[in-house]
Amino acid sequence: MLRALPCVSALPRCRATSRWFSEMAAPAEAISKADDVISRTSRLFIDNQYVEAEGGRLPVLSPVDGKPFASIAHASARDVDRAVQSARRCFDHDCWPQQDVQARVEILKRIAAALRTPEVCDALCVIESRDCGKPFSESQGDLGVCADTFDYYAEVAPETMKTTYPSVGAGATHFYARIAVEPLGVVGCITPWNFPLMQAVLKVAPALAAGCAVVLKPSPLASLTCCALGELVAAAGAPPGALNVITGGPPEVLEGGGSTGQYLIDHSMLDKVSFTGSGSAGQKMLEASASKLRPTCLELGGKSAFIVFEDAADDLDHLVDWVMVGIFQCTGQVCSATSRLLIHESLEAKLVERLLEGIRSIKVGDPLQKGTLMGPVVSEGQQQKVLGMIQQAEADGGKIHSVPLELPKELQQGYYVPPTVLSNLAESSAAWKQEIFGPVLAIRSFRTEEEAIRLANDTPYGLANAVWSADRARTQRVAAQLKSGVVWENCSQVLFPSTPFGGRQGKASGFGFEQGIAGLKEFVSEKTVITGDRTGYSWGVYKQS
Ligand code: NAD
Predict the structure, then answer these.
(1) What per-residue confidence (pLDDT) applies to 1?
(2) Cα–Cα dist 61/378, whole Å
(3) What is the predicted pLDDT for the residue at 22?
(4) How high is the pLDDT of residue 17?
(5) DSSP secondary structure string, 261-276?
(6) For residues 142 and 7, what is the distance between their CA atoms, to the nearest angstrom?
(7) Is the dihedral of CA 151, 153, 156, 161 positive or negative?
């Protein structure tokens, strides 16, 4: 069980950890508990209460078998307004932003403890796996990250929110300065479906730690665990309006042509939007914020490279494992997936052979069953997109390496994609250039270090990259030249609550940070106060003589 592994808390957001639990099937009692949680919480959460939406309900299909298994509330413009007004009241009139940071710290710690409670954790993992298709073991890894993230911000908030007193210089004897760190305000948080609860927590935990009030809108493709977060936050002692959760489209549109997400970002009472998702939706966030001159943090997609130098031949077992972690976790639906493998030409044939052996060992199937290492992708649309890109790669002259799926009858309507490796790709091919967001690894070879760096950087994205070599000077030299917000040396996808994560400024993976102190600073506003000492001193510039 997750809670029995002490090292999990040291490996937050480390999707690699989930393989340790891969033998774990979802416990039967957690499966029946999950249904209770869904029926209680799959509504809007406003003012610390579950309420129905005016906009009706949307069916939720499980990617596991393509069948409906729940429904979510579809928030109308008025529902969105209710949620924003509630957050506004909390921020403007409740003591939430003014109260001592220690009181918020205690709430964060209680949320973390609740997430670690075995019955809560297991039920949420079942819901997550059914809703977005990831193996139960991966959901356990995600839940561990969520708890660790609340604890991390509980630990660092007091120091980060402290007023500081900078020196104003030896000559400025009549003045003092202080810099107060204040909560930013009401934040609209919009999140994707690949790590549904975790992506939400990466925003909600630091926002609450800072004293902001949040309106969270998760993806309609996987909202259910975020709905349940509302009651955990309220039960931990957060006042009404500190966290409101609303669900609905896009892509689903309401009567009159609007959508829940668009109504939220168009609302005039938000002080900030924090978004994780695709570049095209990121543009909509900026458009909605532009007329309001509203700060907007964007965490967008990527097409990260994993560079493998010739000396990797000495340690192929570990290398192959990291390469597979980099692309096959969460069925490849990871923004930072190292989806382009750049191999030194001397190793290409051997490594492709080893990867093929590796993908043969991946059990694809029901995410709640024992031994499943890969579930379906999230939706039929995503399945068709990924399969279409594989077909296109073949039509463009690429070579497909894959193993046919063997699915039992009851899963055949689910949204499965075989783990696939593509080689012989042209630099200009879509499979090499574009984010596929599925279990598809694109391979090219290189001859020199300069060529590897050029190929890795030849992308509009700038989220992450990885480099593998036994030569430490080389990995450091290459890391320094890779244009991304994160670089992994001799590993992939490893992140901690304390390490900031975000796209490189100026590239197409967004701007702003999650995790680390930088992730907390996204939700604060610093105020400089300069104090004169009132000792009858003035500059005398306009002195009447
Ligand atoms: P998406 O952009 O389609 O949707 C993300 C969220 O935005 C959803 O909640 C959706 O309902 C909402 N949305 C979409 N259009 C909107 C609009 N006009 N107004 C308001 N809300 C709107 O992305 P997705 O398909 O859910 O997720 C996949 C994408 O997310 C990939 O590109 C992936 O790389 C990216 N991603 C990035 C990170 C990161 O940390 N950088 C993490 C996970 C996913």
Answers:
(1) 28
(2) 9
(3) 53
(4) 44
(5) HHHHHH-TT-SEEEEE
(6) 14
(7) negative
Taking 3-state DSSP, the helix, strand and coil percentages for the chain, each rounded to the nearest 5, stand at 45, 20, 40
- What whole-number percentage of the chain has pLDDT above 70? 95
Q: Which residue lies with its CA nearest to atom 30 of ligand 1?
A: 277
Beta strands in 350-463 (DSSP E): 399-402, 420-423, 440-446
Weakly modelled stretches of the chain, pLDDT under 50: 1-20
Six-digit token pair at 417? 């994609």
Q: Which of 131, 286, 335, 486 for a ligand 1 pocket mutation test, highest count of atoms within 8 Å of Cβ?
A: 335
Beta bridge partners of 528: 179
Tokens of 271: 């002080």
How far apart (Å, rounded) are the C-alpha atoms in residues 465 and 469?
14
Tens of pLDDT, residue by residue over 421-462, are: 999 999 999 999 999 999 999 999 999 999 999 999 999 999
- In one-letter notation, the amino acid at residue 419 is P
pLDDT tens track for 302-331: 999 999 999 999 899 999 999 999 999 999
Helix 101-116 crosses helix 118-132 at what angle (to 10 degrees)?
70
151 within ligand 1 shell (Cβ under 6 A): no
The reply to whether 299 belongs to the active site is: yes
- Identify the pLDDT of residue 23: 59
Tell me if residue 76 falls in helix, strand or coil.
Answer: coil
**What is the C-alpha separation between 479 and 536, in angstroms, rounded?**
57
| Dihedral, 378, 380, 381, 386 alpha carbons, nearest 10 | 80
Question: What residue owns the CA closest to ligand 1's atom 8?
Answer: 219
